[in-house]
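Two entries, shown back to back:
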Amino acid sequence: MKRYILAVTGASGMPYADTLYHALSGLPETEVQVIISESAKAVMQFEAASGTSFSAQNGHFYSERDLTAPMAGGSWIHHGLVICPCSMATLAAVGNGLGNNLIHRAADVALKEKRPLILVPRETPLNQIHLQNMLAASRAGATILPASPGFYHRPESIQDLVNHIVGRILDHLQIDNSLFPRWGEG
């Protein structure tokens, strides 16, 4: 059984989180643990019209306030944590080793245990503080994978753009996928 953690924070980009959740929960012998921040819940309401349909079919859902959840401890084994979308506040907390909530704590644990941690920031433009926090998180072992889709695969819909980013996230978790045409295959 493979276990993945999806943390959803209050940045715009809920279709990324939704598509990633469904891709992970659709894998055989896979369990998805989801942490949803209070800010993410508010953004989900705003972006509901854009196709977000989070559902608890094959996942376990946690509040960001639940510091007793399994992923708060290093002995709990998982195969990767993705923070998608990753707000700049969460990026700052991860990059500076803060553990104010379950998302921050799970990221800190992933880094100290050398487990995959992928941060998917969506903010633009970036200021110097954002860039410094990205560099700090990267130096600590996180992968920074901005929600900046490519166009070489000739997307025809918003979902094609979302699939490109989610496919790249899955690539970094070493999960085979065919969510988008690869370079030179389109």
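entry 2 starts here
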Amino acid sequence: MKKNTEKTNVMRLLDQRNIPYTSYCYTDTGVISGIEVATVLHQNPAQVFKTLVTAGSSKNYYVFLVPVCKELDLKKAAKAVSEKSIHMLKSKELLPLTGYVHGGCSPIGMKKQFQTIVDRSAAGFDTIIFSGGKIGYQVEISFDALKKLCKAELYDIVAEDSE
């Protein structure tokens, strides 16, 4: 892992709002999965979150953050946002909607702010780690800071049997 000298838009937004954060860069490692990211960052996979964008039956979009070692439960997620059902957005739809590519999607700095739900397990950590808005970059901030930026809410959204 190399020292992060490049700033992503997410980091610039955090700087503008004077929100303290730690940034990580792992562009030289070749890792792909969230578990691999947690491993190269020497972090607990339960504290490293992936950003998932979904569409509801109402045609509204939602952002969910779940630990990289867990899976999103679509039924629980739909209930959290009062939808009949939701489905994962296709990769090709992600960039035009959010401004981010698959693997580099962050809840901070999307083209439009969508309702953001974070798995309740985040409450057990002082900080959580998630994409810095570009593949190979992560940021670590408190949930309270994320809540202020994205109006994020906590909810039980992970599948019971996911490990």
